[in-house]
Write a structure and sequence with these properties.
By secondary structure, this protein is mainly alpha-helical. Helices cover 67% and strands 0% of the residues. The protein has one domain. It comes from Elysia marginata.
Length: 94
């Protein structure tokens, strides 16, 4: 997931993702969501939060679903995950 986060932050996927098409960002979102579902590893969930934040660059449904996932992470059982989600939410609003 760290590699995916780096690819999103360097805008590598912008050339691959078709404008107006949400299929690639939605596939990434669904895959990451399945990967961290019921995960007990805080670092894995933190990496997923970074990927969600990177997916905010895509407009439409991917952005709203990523914001929803970040809001869910604000209620996570691990305090560190909640803190990271809070920081990413603040940064995404700016």
């Amino acid at each position: 997931m760290r590699s995916l986060d780096h690819m999103l932050s360097w805008s590598v996927l912008d050339g691959i993702a078709e404008p107006g098409s949400d299929s690639l960002p939605m596939q990434i979102l669904d895959t990451v969501k399945k990967e961290v579902q019921k995960s007990k590893k805080p670092k894995k969930v933190q990496a997923a939060a970074d990927v969600y934040c990177g997916l905010l660059q895509f407009e439409g449904e991917p952005r709203s679903k990523c914001l929803f996932q970040l809001m869910i992470l604000l209620c996570h059982q691990y305090p560190r995950v909640r803190f990271v989600a809070l920081l990413l939410n603040k940064l995404s609003i700016l």
